[in-house]
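Bug: C-alpha coordinate stream looks shifted between consecutive jobs. Job 1:
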Amino acid sequence: MKLNTNENPYPPSPKALAAYEAFDVSSLRLYPPLPMRALREAVAQAEGVAPENVFCGNGSDEILALCFPAFFDEGGEGAAFADITYSFYPVFCAFFGVPCTQVPLEEDFTLDLNKLSAAKAQGLLVANPNAPTGIGIPLTEIEAFVRKNSGRIVIVDEAYMPFFGQSAVPLTKKYENLLVVKTFSKGYSLAGMRCGYAVGNAALIGGLERCRDSFNSYPVDSVCQAVCAAAIGDGAYYEEKNALVVSERERLTAELAERGFTVLPSKANFVFARHGAVGGREVYAQLRARGVLVRHFEKPRISEFCRITVGSREQNDALLSALDEFLPR
Protein backbone atom coordinates (compact mmCIF):
# COMPACT_ATOMS: atom_id res chain seq x y z
CA MET A 1 0.00 0.00 0.00
CA LYS A 2 1.59 3.21 -1.24
CA LEU A 3 1.32 6.05 1.27
CA ASN A 4 4.72 7.62 0.61
CA THR A 5 4.29 10.01 -2.35
CA ASN A 6 1.14 11.98 -1.48
CA GLU A 7 -1.01 10.86 -4.38
CA ASN A 8 -4.75 11.47 -4.14
CA PRO A 9 -6.64 8.24 -3.26
CA TYR A 10 -9.62 9.17 -5.43
CA PRO A 11 -9.87 8.97 -9.23
CA PRO A 12 -9.79 12.01 -11.53
CA SER A 13 -12.98 13.81 -12.49
CA PRO A 14 -15.31 11.97 -14.89
CA LYS A 15 -14.96 15.02 -17.14
CA ALA A 16 -11.19 14.53 -17.24
CA LEU A 17 -11.62 10.86 -18.09
CA ALA A 18 -14.15 11.72 -20.80
CA ALA A 19 -11.70 14.20 -22.34
CA TYR A 20 -9.06 11.48 -22.38
CA GLU A 21 -11.35 8.96 -24.05
CA ALA A 22 -12.60 11.51 -26.62
CA PHE A 23 -9.14 12.69 -27.62
CA ASP A 24 -8.46 12.44 -31.36
CA VAL A 25 -5.35 10.26 -31.43
CA SER A 26 -4.81 10.97 -35.14
CA SER A 27 -3.72 14.48 -34.09
CA LEU A 28 -0.72 13.04 -32.24
CA ARG A 29 1.32 13.31 -35.45
CA LEU A 30 1.28 17.07 -34.82
CA TYR A 31 3.15 19.03 -32.17
CA PRO A 32 0.97 20.13 -29.25
CA PRO A 33 -0.59 23.61 -29.33
CA LEU A 34 2.26 25.95 -28.49
CA PRO A 35 0.19 28.73 -26.87
CA MET A 36 -1.70 26.15 -24.78
CA ARG A 37 -4.63 28.52 -25.15
CA ALA A 38 -7.42 26.15 -24.11
CA LEU A 39 -5.57 25.00 -21.00
CA ARG A 40 -4.51 28.50 -19.99
CA GLU A 41 -8.05 29.78 -20.47
CA ALA A 42 -9.44 26.95 -18.36
CA VAL A 43 -6.92 27.66 -15.59
CA ALA A 44 -7.59 31.39 -15.83
CA GLN A 45 -11.33 30.90 -15.50
CA ALA A 46 -10.94 28.60 -12.50
CA GLU A 47 -8.49 30.94 -10.77
CA GLY A 48 -10.25 34.20 -11.65
CA VAL A 49 -7.33 35.71 -13.60
CA ALA A 50 -6.54 36.47 -17.24
CA PRO A 51 -4.88 33.87 -19.52
CA GLU A 52 -1.81 36.08 -19.87
CA ASN A 53 -1.29 35.62 -16.15
CA VAL A 54 -0.99 31.81 -16.48
CA PHE A 55 2.04 29.69 -17.33
CA CYS A 56 1.81 25.91 -17.79
CA GLY A 57 4.53 23.28 -17.59
CA ASN A 58 5.27 19.61 -16.97
CA GLY A 59 4.38 19.56 -13.31
CA SER A 60 5.15 22.21 -10.73
CA ASP A 61 8.69 20.80 -10.45
CA GLU A 62 9.52 21.96 -13.98
CA ILE A 63 8.04 25.39 -13.32
CA LEU A 64 9.95 25.76 -10.06
CA ALA A 65 13.14 24.73 -11.86
CA LEU A 66 12.55 27.37 -14.54
CA CYS A 67 12.14 30.03 -11.86
CA PHE A 68 15.81 29.86 -10.93
CA PRO A 69 17.38 30.76 -14.30
CA ALA A 70 14.47 33.11 -15.02
CA PHE A 71 14.55 35.19 -11.83
CA PHE A 72 17.90 34.63 -10.12
CA ASP A 73 21.42 35.59 -11.16
CA GLU A 74 24.10 32.93 -11.17
CA GLY A 75 26.44 33.81 -8.34
CA GLY A 76 24.18 36.68 -7.18
CA GLU A 77 22.46 37.19 -3.85
CA GLY A 78 20.52 33.99 -4.44
CA ALA A 79 17.34 32.54 -3.01
CA ALA A 80 16.16 32.08 0.57
CA PHE A 81 13.81 29.45 1.96
CA ALA A 82 13.28 27.29 5.05
CA ASP A 83 15.81 24.68 6.08
CA ILE A 84 13.09 22.03 6.33
CA THR A 85 10.95 22.33 3.22
CA TYR A 86 10.65 20.89 -0.27
CA SER A 87 13.98 19.20 -0.92
CA PHE A 88 14.30 20.31 -4.55
CA TYR A 89 14.82 24.00 -3.71
CA PRO A 90 18.49 23.58 -2.74
CA VAL A 91 18.94 21.10 -5.61
CA PHE A 92 17.75 23.68 -8.14
CA CYS A 93 20.03 26.30 -6.58
CA ALA A 94 23.04 24.04 -6.87
CA PHE A 95 22.22 23.03 -10.44
CA PHE A 96 21.77 26.60 -11.69
CA GLY A 97 24.61 28.12 -9.66
CA VAL A 98 22.30 30.19 -7.47
CA PRO A 99 23.47 30.73 -3.87
CA CYS A 100 20.92 29.85 -1.22
CA THR A 101 20.17 30.83 2.35
CA GLN A 102 18.24 28.36 4.48
CA VAL A 103 16.33 29.86 7.39
CA PRO A 104 15.74 27.41 10.27
CA LEU A 105 12.18 26.59 11.20
CA GLU A 106 11.13 27.33 14.76
CA GLU A 107 11.08 24.64 17.45
CA ASP A 108 7.45 23.89 16.65
CA PHE A 109 8.36 23.61 12.93
CA THR A 110 6.56 26.81 11.93
CA LEU A 111 8.27 29.32 9.64
CA ASP A 112 8.94 32.81 10.97
CA LEU A 113 8.32 34.95 7.88
CA ASN A 114 10.08 37.91 9.47
CA LYS A 115 13.28 35.89 9.69
CA LEU A 116 12.89 34.84 6.07
CA SER A 117 12.37 38.47 5.08
CA ALA A 118 15.62 39.36 6.83
CA ALA A 119 17.62 37.04 4.58
CA LYS A 120 19.84 38.71 2.01
CA ALA A 121 18.53 37.27 -1.24
CA GLN A 122 17.14 38.20 -4.65
CA GLY A 123 13.99 36.25 -3.99
CA LEU A 124 12.15 34.15 -1.43
CA LEU A 125 10.40 30.78 -1.69
CA VAL A 126 7.66 29.53 0.60
CA ALA A 127 5.91 26.17 0.36
CA ASN A 128 2.39 26.64 1.70
CA PRO A 129 1.39 24.23 3.14
CA ASN A 130 4.96 23.23 3.82
CA ALA A 131 6.45 19.88 2.92
CA PRO A 132 7.20 17.65 4.72
CA THR A 133 5.69 19.23 7.84
CA GLY A 134 2.24 19.96 6.38
CA ILE A 135 1.93 23.21 8.34
CA GLY A 136 0.03 26.00 6.59
CA ILE A 137 0.45 29.77 6.77
CA PRO A 138 -2.75 31.87 6.83
CA LEU A 139 -3.38 34.07 3.80
CA THR A 140 -3.25 37.25 5.87
CA GLU A 141 0.32 36.46 6.90
CA ILE A 142 1.30 35.61 3.32
CA GLU A 143 -0.04 38.96 2.10
CA ALA A 144 1.88 40.91 4.74
CA PHE A 145 5.01 38.97 3.77
CA VAL A 146 4.58 39.67 0.03
CA ARG A 147 3.93 43.35 0.70
CA LYS A 148 6.97 43.62 2.96
CA ASN A 149 9.19 42.18 0.21
CA SER A 150 7.86 44.25 -2.67
CA GLY A 151 11.37 44.83 -4.03
CA ARG A 152 12.07 41.17 -4.80
CA ILE A 153 10.22 38.15 -6.13
CA VAL A 154 8.22 35.96 -3.76
CA ILE A 155 7.41 32.46 -5.03
CA VAL A 156 4.68 30.61 -3.15
CA ASP A 157 4.59 26.89 -3.88
CA GLU A 158 1.00 25.75 -3.37
CA ALA A 159 1.23 22.08 -4.33
CA TYR A 160 -0.94 21.13 -1.34
CA MET A 161 -3.26 24.14 -1.31
CA PRO A 162 -6.38 22.12 -2.34
CA PHE A 163 -6.39 20.71 1.19
CA PHE A 164 -5.96 24.11 2.90
CA GLY A 165 -8.08 26.52 0.89
CA GLN A 166 -6.18 29.78 1.43
CA SER A 167 -4.55 30.31 -1.96
CA ALA A 168 -2.52 33.44 -2.62
CA VAL A 169 -3.61 33.60 -6.28
CA PRO A 170 -5.97 36.57 -5.66
CA LEU A 171 -2.98 38.51 -4.33
CA THR A 172 -1.26 38.30 -7.73
CA LYS A 173 -3.66 41.03 -8.90
CA LYS A 174 -2.33 43.37 -6.22
CA TYR A 175 1.38 42.51 -6.04
CA GLU A 176 3.60 42.37 -9.10
CA ASN A 177 6.36 40.51 -7.22
CA LEU A 178 4.24 37.44 -6.41
CA LEU A 179 4.29 34.18 -8.36
CA VAL A 180 2.07 31.30 -7.21
CA VAL A 181 2.92 27.78 -8.43
CA LYS A 182 0.35 24.97 -8.43
CA THR A 183 0.03 21.39 -9.67
CA PHE A 184 -2.59 19.02 -11.06
CA SER A 185 -0.91 16.11 -9.26
CA LYS A 186 -2.39 16.35 -5.77
CA GLY A 187 -5.79 18.03 -5.67
CA TYR A 188 -6.78 16.96 -9.20
CA SER A 189 -5.65 13.31 -8.96
CA LEU A 190 -3.53 13.65 -12.10
CA ALA A 191 0.00 12.92 -10.90
CA GLY A 192 0.48 10.66 -13.92
CA MET A 193 -0.19 13.51 -16.36
CA ARG A 194 2.69 15.70 -15.08
CA CYS A 195 1.16 19.14 -15.40
CA GLY A 196 1.39 22.27 -13.31
CA TYR A 197 0.86 26.00 -13.66
CA ALA A 198 1.96 29.33 -12.30
CA VAL A 199 -0.09 32.49 -11.80
CA GLY A 200 1.46 35.93 -11.64
CA ASN A 201 2.07 39.30 -13.21
CA ALA A 202 2.35 39.16 -17.02
CA ALA A 203 6.00 40.23 -16.81
CA LEU A 204 6.84 37.26 -14.57
CA ILE A 205 4.94 34.91 -16.86
CA GLY A 206 6.86 36.34 -19.83
CA GLY A 207 10.14 35.64 -18.07
CA LEU A 208 9.19 32.01 -17.57
CA GLU A 209 8.11 31.70 -21.21
CA ARG A 210 11.40 33.10 -22.54
CA CYS A 211 13.38 30.77 -20.32
CA ARG A 212 11.33 27.74 -21.38
CA ASP A 213 11.36 28.59 -25.08
CA SER A 214 15.14 28.85 -25.10
CA PHE A 215 15.37 25.05 -24.98
CA ASN A 216 11.89 23.46 -25.16
CA SER A 217 8.93 25.18 -26.79
CA TYR A 218 6.52 22.22 -26.55
CA PRO A 219 6.62 20.96 -22.98
CA VAL A 220 2.98 20.02 -22.28
CA ASP A 221 1.65 17.31 -24.59
CA SER A 222 -1.70 17.50 -26.38
CA VAL A 223 -3.42 14.80 -24.34
CA CYS A 224 -2.31 16.39 -21.09
CA GLN A 225 -3.59 19.80 -22.16
CA ALA A 226 -7.03 18.42 -23.00
CA VAL A 227 -7.37 16.32 -19.84
CA CYS A 228 -6.19 19.05 -17.45
CA ALA A 229 -8.41 21.68 -19.06
CA ALA A 230 -11.40 19.42 -18.46
CA ALA A 231 -10.28 18.58 -14.93
CA ILE A 232 -9.91 22.13 -13.69
CA GLY A 233 -13.36 22.93 -15.03
CA ASP A 234 -14.94 20.41 -12.67
CA GLY A 235 -14.37 22.24 -9.43
CA ALA A 236 -17.38 20.74 -7.66
CA TYR A 237 -16.08 17.20 -8.08
CA TYR A 238 -12.68 18.00 -6.63
CA GLU A 239 -14.11 20.02 -3.77
CA GLU A 240 -16.12 16.95 -2.79
CA LYS A 241 -13.20 14.50 -3.06
CA ASN A 242 -10.66 16.75 -1.38
CA ALA A 243 -13.10 17.37 1.46
CA LEU A 244 -13.02 13.60 2.01
CA VAL A 245 -9.22 13.76 2.18
CA VAL A 246 -9.41 16.55 4.76
CA SER A 247 -11.95 14.59 6.81
CA GLU A 248 -9.74 11.51 6.73
CA ARG A 249 -6.71 13.63 7.61
CA GLU A 250 -8.41 14.75 10.81
CA ARG A 251 -9.52 11.22 11.67
CA LEU A 252 -6.07 9.79 10.98
CA THR A 253 -4.46 12.51 13.10
CA ALA A 254 -6.71 11.61 16.04
CA GLU A 255 -6.13 7.86 15.62
CA LEU A 256 -2.36 8.31 15.50
CA ALA A 257 -2.44 10.51 18.60
CA GLU A 258 -4.29 7.74 20.46
CA ARG A 259 -1.45 5.39 19.52
CA GLY A 260 1.23 7.61 21.03
CA PHE A 261 2.18 9.76 18.05
CA THR A 262 2.81 13.48 18.05
CA VAL A 263 1.30 14.76 14.81
CA LEU A 264 2.06 18.22 13.46
CA PRO A 265 -1.04 20.27 12.52
CA SER A 266 -1.27 19.38 8.83
CA LYS A 267 -3.10 21.37 6.16
CA ALA A 268 -1.92 19.04 3.37
CA ASN A 269 -2.93 15.55 2.20
CA PHE A 270 -0.37 13.93 4.49
CA VAL A 271 0.57 13.95 8.16
CA PHE A 272 4.01 14.25 9.75
CA ALA A 273 4.11 12.06 12.85
CA ARG A 274 6.60 11.04 15.53
CA HIS A 275 6.01 8.20 18.00
CA GLY A 276 6.91 8.63 21.65
CA ALA A 277 8.56 5.22 22.06
CA VAL A 278 9.41 3.88 18.58
CA GLY A 279 11.89 5.68 16.34
CA GLY A 280 10.99 6.97 12.92
CA ARG A 281 13.26 4.58 11.09
CA GLU A 282 11.77 1.64 12.99
CA VAL A 283 8.19 2.73 12.26
CA TYR A 284 9.08 3.02 8.57
CA ALA A 285 10.77 -0.42 8.51
CA GLN A 286 8.01 -2.19 10.44
CA LEU A 287 5.34 -0.78 8.14
CA ARG A 288 7.35 -1.66 5.05
CA ALA A 289 7.68 -5.24 6.28
CA ARG A 290 3.89 -5.33 6.40
CA GLY A 291 3.49 -3.95 2.89
CA VAL A 292 2.76 -0.32 3.84
CA LEU A 293 5.05 2.34 2.37
CA VAL A 294 5.50 5.68 4.16
CA ARG A 295 8.26 8.29 3.85
CA HIS A 296 11.17 8.59 6.27
CA PHE A 297 13.85 11.30 6.19
CA GLU A 298 17.35 10.67 7.55
CA LYS A 299 17.87 14.35 8.29
CA PRO A 300 18.60 16.37 11.43
CA ARG A 301 15.56 17.40 13.47
CA ILE A 302 13.10 15.24 11.51
CA SER A 303 14.66 11.77 11.58
CA GLU A 304 12.14 10.61 14.20
CA PHE A 305 9.20 11.54 11.97
CA CYS A 306 7.43 9.68 9.20
CA ARG A 307 5.40 11.40 6.52
CA ILE A 308 2.22 9.47 5.85
CA THR A 309 -0.05 10.15 2.90
CA VAL A 310 -3.73 10.40 3.78
CA GLY A 311 -5.37 7.56 1.88
CA SER A 312 -8.95 6.44 1.56
CA ARG A 313 -10.75 5.32 4.69
CA GLU A 314 -9.93 1.70 3.83
CA GLN A 315 -6.25 2.48 3.28
CA ASN A 316 -6.02 4.45 6.52
CA ASP A 317 -7.68 1.63 8.45
CA ALA A 318 -5.16 -0.83 6.97
CA LEU A 319 -2.32 1.49 8.04
CA LEU A 320 -3.67 1.69 11.58
CA SER A 321 -4.05 -2.10 11.74
CA ALA A 322 -0.43 -2.50 10.64
CA LEU A 323 0.70 -0.09 13.34
CA ASP A 324 -1.25 -1.99 15.97
CA GLU A 325 0.73 -5.11 15.14
CA PHE A 326 4.01 -3.72 16.46
CA LEU A 327 3.45 -0.55 18.51
CA PRO A 328 3.63 -0.95 22.30
CA ARG A 329 0.18 -0.99 23.85
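Job 2, same session, no restart:
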Amino acid sequence: MSDAQAQIFEGGFRPYTGPRLGARLSTRTLYTYSLGRLLGRKRRFRSKLIPIASAVVSWVGAIGLIFWAALFALIIDVDFDTVRGYYRFAWIGIVLFSILATPTLLTTDRRSGLLSLYLASPLSRTRYLGAQTMAIHTLLVALSLVPVLILGIVYTALGVGPGNAGDFAIFVLRAIAASISLALLPTALGVAICSAARRAGIAMVLIALCLLVPQGIVNLLVEVAGAPAELGVLDPMNLSWSLTKRSFALPLESGTGVSPVESVATWVVVLATLGWSALLGGFALWRYRRVEVER
Protein backbone atom coordinates (compact mmCIF):
# COMPACT_ATOMS: atom_id res chain seq x y z
CA MET A 1 0.00 0.00 0.00
CA SER A 2 1.11 3.54 -0.67
CA ASP A 3 2.09 5.74 2.24
CA ALA A 4 0.79 8.84 0.44
CA GLN A 5 -1.66 10.83 2.47
CA ALA A 6 -4.55 12.87 1.17
CA GLN A 7 -3.83 16.57 1.06
CA ILE A 8 -6.08 19.61 0.75
CA PHE A 9 -4.47 22.11 -1.59
CA GLU A 10 -7.18 24.77 -1.43
CA GLY A 11 -10.08 25.39 0.85
CA GLY A 12 -13.01 27.75 1.01
CA PHE A 13 -15.97 28.51 -1.21
CA ARG A 14 -15.53 29.47 -4.84
CA PRO A 15 -18.54 31.21 -6.40
CA TYR A 16 -19.81 30.28 -9.83
CA THR A 17 -18.72 32.94 -12.31
CA GLY A 18 -20.06 31.46 -15.55
CA PRO A 19 -23.23 32.48 -17.42
CA ARG A 20 -26.43 32.00 -15.47
CA LEU A 21 -28.93 30.61 -17.95
CA GLY A 22 -31.21 28.82 -15.51
CA ALA A 23 -34.65 30.22 -16.34
CA ARG A 24 -33.88 31.02 -19.97
CA LEU A 25 -32.33 27.62 -20.64
CA SER A 26 -35.20 25.84 -18.90
CA THR A 27 -37.75 27.75 -21.00
CA ARG A 28 -35.91 26.96 -24.22
CA THR A 29 -35.55 23.30 -23.26
CA LEU A 30 -39.26 22.99 -22.44
CA TYR A 31 -40.13 24.69 -25.74
CA THR A 32 -38.07 22.25 -27.83
CA TYR A 33 -39.25 19.28 -25.76
CA SER A 34 -42.89 20.31 -26.21
CA LEU A 35 -42.38 20.56 -29.97
CA GLY A 36 -41.13 16.98 -29.90
CA ARG A 37 -44.09 15.84 -27.81
CA LEU A 38 -46.57 17.46 -30.17
CA LEU A 39 -44.89 15.74 -33.11
CA GLY A 40 -44.82 12.38 -31.29
CA ARG A 41 -41.02 12.25 -31.08
CA LYS A 42 -39.70 9.11 -29.30
CA ARG A 43 -43.26 7.94 -28.72
CA ARG A 44 -45.46 5.21 -30.14
CA PHE A 45 -46.68 5.53 -33.69
CA ARG A 46 -50.24 6.31 -32.59
CA SER A 47 -48.91 9.49 -30.97
CA LYS A 48 -47.64 10.57 -34.39
CA LEU A 49 -51.03 10.12 -36.08
CA ILE A 50 -52.35 13.57 -35.09
CA PRO A 51 -49.46 15.62 -36.55
CA ILE A 52 -49.32 13.35 -39.61
CA ALA A 53 -53.06 13.73 -40.25
CA SER A 54 -52.90 17.50 -39.74
CA ALA A 55 -49.94 17.83 -42.10
CA VAL A 56 -51.61 15.67 -44.74
CA VAL A 57 -54.80 17.74 -44.57
CA SER A 58 -52.84 21.00 -44.77
CA TRP A 59 -50.37 19.97 -47.48
CA VAL A 60 -52.20 17.55 -49.75
CA GLY A 61 -53.89 20.43 -51.58
CA ALA A 62 -50.53 22.11 -52.11
CA ILE A 63 -49.10 18.94 -53.64
CA GLY A 64 -52.05 18.80 -56.03
CA LEU A 65 -51.60 22.44 -57.00
CA ILE A 66 -47.90 21.88 -57.65
CA PHE A 67 -48.65 19.03 -60.07
CA TRP A 68 -51.42 21.08 -61.69
CA ALA A 69 -49.10 24.06 -62.22
CA ALA A 70 -46.26 21.88 -63.48
CA LEU A 71 -48.49 20.14 -66.03
CA PHE A 72 -50.59 23.04 -67.29
CA ALA A 73 -48.53 26.22 -66.72
CA LEU A 74 -47.44 26.21 -70.37
CA ILE A 75 -50.93 25.47 -71.69
CA ILE A 76 -53.33 27.61 -69.64
CA ASP A 77 -52.99 30.66 -67.41
CA VAL A 78 -52.18 29.66 -63.82
CA ASP A 79 -53.31 32.28 -61.32
CA PHE A 80 -50.93 33.09 -58.46
CA ASP A 81 -53.93 34.11 -56.32
CA THR A 82 -54.46 30.38 -55.85
CA VAL A 83 -51.29 30.35 -53.74
CA ARG A 84 -52.31 33.38 -51.71
CA GLY A 85 -55.72 31.89 -51.05
CA TYR A 86 -54.37 28.49 -49.99
CA TYR A 87 -54.85 29.39 -46.33
CA ARG A 88 -58.50 28.36 -46.63
CA PHE A 89 -57.32 24.76 -47.11
CA ALA A 90 -54.58 24.96 -44.48
CA TRP A 91 -57.14 26.21 -41.96
CA ILE A 92 -58.68 22.72 -41.80
CA GLY A 93 -55.39 21.21 -40.64
CA ILE A 94 -54.94 23.96 -38.06
CA VAL A 95 -58.41 23.33 -36.59
CA LEU A 96 -57.75 19.58 -36.49
CA PHE A 97 -54.40 20.03 -34.76
CA SER A 98 -55.81 22.55 -32.25
CA ILE A 99 -58.64 20.22 -31.26
CA LEU A 100 -56.62 17.01 -30.95
CA ALA A 101 -53.05 17.99 -30.04
CA THR A 102 -53.31 20.94 -27.66
CA PRO A 103 -55.20 19.05 -24.91
CA THR A 104 -52.79 16.11 -25.02
CA LEU A 105 -49.92 18.47 -24.25
CA LEU A 106 -51.37 20.63 -21.47
CA THR A 107 -53.90 18.48 -19.63
CA THR A 108 -51.50 15.53 -19.44
CA ASP A 109 -48.94 17.57 -17.49
CA ARG A 110 -51.43 18.33 -14.71
CA ARG A 111 -52.96 14.87 -14.50
CA SER A 112 -49.60 13.06 -14.49
CA GLY A 113 -47.96 15.41 -11.97
CA LEU A 114 -45.36 16.50 -14.50
CA LEU A 115 -46.33 20.12 -13.92
CA SER A 116 -45.00 19.99 -10.35
CA LEU A 117 -41.71 18.64 -11.67
CA TYR A 118 -41.44 21.49 -14.16
CA LEU A 119 -42.15 24.08 -11.48
CA ALA A 120 -39.48 22.57 -9.22
CA SER A 121 -36.96 23.78 -11.81
CA PRO A 122 -36.14 27.46 -12.45
CA LEU A 123 -39.34 27.62 -14.52
CA SER A 124 -42.08 29.90 -13.23
CA ARG A 125 -45.72 29.36 -14.08
CA THR A 126 -45.57 32.22 -16.56
CA ARG A 127 -42.51 30.80 -18.31
CA TYR A 128 -44.03 27.32 -18.37
CA LEU A 129 -47.23 28.56 -19.97
CA GLY A 130 -45.31 30.78 -22.39
CA ALA A 131 -43.08 27.92 -23.57
CA GLN A 132 -46.04 25.59 -24.11
CA THR A 133 -48.04 28.26 -25.92
CA MET A 134 -45.15 29.12 -28.22
CA ALA A 135 -44.63 25.44 -29.07
CA ILE A 136 -48.29 25.07 -30.08
CA HIS A 137 -48.30 28.33 -32.03
CA THR A 138 -45.07 27.44 -33.85
CA LEU A 139 -46.49 24.20 -35.20
CA LEU A 140 -49.80 25.81 -36.16
CA VAL A 141 -47.90 28.49 -38.08
CA ALA A 142 -45.79 25.83 -39.81
CA LEU A 143 -48.89 23.92 -40.93
CA SER A 144 -49.98 26.84 -43.11
CA LEU A 145 -46.71 28.63 -43.86
CA VAL A 146 -44.68 25.71 -45.23
CA PRO A 147 -47.09 24.71 -48.06
CA VAL A 148 -47.68 28.36 -49.03
CA LEU A 149 -43.94 29.05 -49.28
CA ILE A 150 -43.36 25.88 -51.29
CA LEU A 151 -46.19 26.83 -53.63
CA GLY A 152 -44.77 30.34 -53.96
CA ILE A 153 -41.33 29.00 -54.89
CA VAL A 154 -42.73 26.51 -57.43
CA TYR A 155 -45.07 29.02 -59.07
CA THR A 156 -42.27 31.60 -59.23
CA ALA A 157 -39.95 29.05 -60.84
CA LEU A 158 -42.65 28.40 -63.44
CA GLY A 159 -42.84 32.10 -64.21
CA VAL A 160 -46.28 32.80 -62.75
CA GLY A 161 -45.20 34.22 -59.39
CA PRO A 162 -43.73 37.53 -58.20
CA GLY A 163 -41.80 39.32 -60.91
CA ASN A 164 -38.63 40.17 -58.98
CA ALA A 165 -36.77 39.56 -55.72
CA GLY A 166 -38.43 42.53 -54.00
CA ASP A 167 -41.93 41.31 -54.81
CA PHE A 168 -41.04 37.80 -53.65
CA ALA A 169 -39.69 39.19 -50.36
CA ILE A 170 -42.99 41.04 -49.85
CA PHE A 171 -44.82 37.79 -50.60
CA VAL A 172 -42.78 35.97 -47.94
CA LEU A 173 -43.40 38.68 -45.34
CA ARG A 174 -47.12 38.69 -46.06
CA ALA A 175 -47.18 34.88 -45.88
CA ILE A 176 -45.53 34.94 -42.46
CA ALA A 177 -47.94 37.59 -41.18
CA ALA A 178 -50.92 35.66 -42.55
CA SER A 179 -49.79 32.39 -40.95
CA ILE A 180 -49.25 34.06 -37.57
CA SER A 181 -52.69 35.68 -37.81
CA LEU A 182 -54.37 32.40 -38.74
CA ALA A 183 -52.83 30.49 -35.81
CA LEU A 184 -53.17 33.17 -33.12
CA LEU A 185 -56.76 32.67 -31.95
CA PRO A 186 -56.80 28.84 -32.19
CA THR A 187 -53.69 28.76 -30.02
CA ALA A 188 -55.05 31.18 -27.42
CA LEU A 189 -58.44 29.44 -27.34
CA GLY A 190 -56.93 25.97 -26.98
CA VAL A 191 -54.59 27.02 -24.16
CA ALA A 192 -57.36 28.85 -22.29
CA ILE A 193 -59.73 25.88 -22.45
CA CYS A 194 -57.03 23.40 -21.44
CA SER A 195 -56.18 25.57 -18.43
CA ALA A 196 -59.71 25.02 -17.12
CA ALA A 197 -60.43 21.44 -18.25
CA ARG A 198 -58.48 18.63 -16.60
CA ARG A 199 -59.45 15.87 -19.02
CA ALA A 200 -58.23 15.85 -22.60
CA GLY A 201 -61.53 14.55 -23.97
CA ILE A 202 -63.55 17.35 -22.43
CA ALA A 203 -61.02 19.93 -23.65
CA MET A 204 -61.23 18.56 -27.20
CA VAL A 205 -65.01 18.85 -27.25
CA LEU A 206 -64.95 22.39 -25.85
CA ILE A 207 -62.32 23.58 -28.35
CA ALA A 208 -64.32 22.11 -31.23
CA LEU A 209 -67.52 23.77 -30.02
CA CYS A 210 -65.86 27.17 -29.52
CA LEU A 211 -64.30 27.08 -33.00
CA LEU A 212 -67.22 25.72 -35.01
CA VAL A 213 -70.50 26.66 -33.30
CA PRO A 214 -70.21 30.49 -33.10
CA GLN A 215 -70.08 30.74 -36.90
CA GLY A 216 -73.66 29.56 -37.34
CA ILE A 217 -74.98 31.57 -34.38
CA VAL A 218 -73.39 34.83 -35.56
CA ASN A 219 -74.60 34.38 -39.14
CA LEU A 220 -78.11 33.70 -37.88
CA LEU A 221 -78.15 36.79 -35.65
CA VAL A 222 -76.81 39.10 -38.36
CA GLU A 223 -78.74 37.81 -41.38
CA VAL A 224 -82.05 36.94 -39.70
CA ALA A 225 -82.28 39.09 -36.58
CA GLY A 226 -80.60 42.13 -38.15
CA ALA A 227 -77.79 42.40 -35.59
CA PRO A 228 -74.82 44.65 -36.51
CA ALA A 229 -72.05 43.11 -38.58
CA GLU A 230 -69.53 43.90 -35.83
CA LEU A 231 -71.00 40.92 -34.00
CA GLY A 232 -68.85 38.83 -36.35
CA VAL A 233 -65.85 39.40 -34.09
CA LEU A 234 -67.42 36.82 -31.75
CA ASP A 235 -66.71 34.12 -34.34
CA PRO A 236 -63.05 33.12 -33.77
CA MET A 237 -62.86 30.93 -36.87
CA ASN A 238 -63.91 33.58 -39.39
CA LEU A 239 -62.19 36.34 -37.41
CA SER A 240 -58.85 34.57 -37.87
CA TRP A 241 -59.55 33.92 -41.55
CA SER A 242 -60.56 37.52 -42.17
CA LEU A 243 -57.39 38.84 -40.52
CA THR A 244 -55.34 36.42 -42.61
CA LYS A 245 -56.93 37.70 -45.82
CA ARG A 246 -56.20 41.28 -44.84
CA SER A 247 -52.59 40.37 -43.96
CA PHE A 248 -52.16 38.89 -47.43
CA ALA A 249 -54.17 41.63 -49.19
CA LEU A 250 -56.74 39.12 -50.44
CA PRO A 251 -60.08 40.49 -51.66
CA LEU A 252 -62.90 40.48 -49.12
CA GLU A 253 -66.25 38.96 -49.99
CA SER A 254 -69.75 40.31 -49.64
CA GLY A 255 -73.29 39.03 -50.07
CA THR A 256 -75.54 36.37 -48.58
CA GLY A 257 -73.84 33.50 -46.81
CA VAL A 258 -70.60 35.43 -46.29
CA SER A 259 -69.28 35.92 -42.77
CA PRO A 260 -70.37 39.31 -41.34
CA VAL A 261 -66.81 40.05 -40.21
CA GLU A 262 -65.82 40.50 -43.88
CA SER A 263 -67.60 43.87 -43.90
CA VAL A 264 -66.03 45.06 -40.63
CA ALA A 265 -63.22 47.63 -40.73
CA THR A 266 -59.68 46.26 -40.58
CA TRP A 267 -58.78 48.14 -37.41
CA VAL A 268 -61.78 46.55 -35.65
CA VAL A 269 -60.68 43.08 -36.78
CA VAL A 270 -57.12 43.69 -35.56
CA LEU A 271 -58.25 45.06 -32.18
CA ALA A 272 -60.75 42.23 -31.74
CA THR A 273 -58.09 39.60 -32.46
CA LEU A 274 -55.60 41.18 -30.06
CA GLY A 275 -58.31 41.65 -27.45
CA TRP A 276 -59.47 38.04 -27.63
CA SER A 277 -55.85 36.82 -27.50
CA ALA A 278 -55.08 38.97 -24.46
CA LEU A 279 -58.30 37.93 -22.70
CA LEU A 280 -57.79 34.22 -23.33
CA GLY A 281 -54.11 34.41 -22.45
CA GLY A 282 -54.86 36.29 -19.22
CA PHE A 283 -57.49 33.71 -18.27
CA ALA A 284 -55.04 30.84 -18.88
CA LEU A 285 -52.35 32.54 -16.80
CA TRP A 286 -54.85 33.23 -13.99
CA ARG A 287 -55.90 29.58 -13.97
CA TYR A 288 -52.31 28.30 -13.86
CA ARG A 289 -51.43 30.62 -11.02
CA ARG A 290 -54.28 29.07 -9.02
CA VAL A 291 -53.24 25.48 -9.72
CA GLU A 292 -51.90 23.85 -6.55
CA VAL A 293 -48.79 21.73 -7.02
CA GLU A 294 -46.46 20.03 -4.58
CA ARG A 295 -42.93 21.29 -4.97
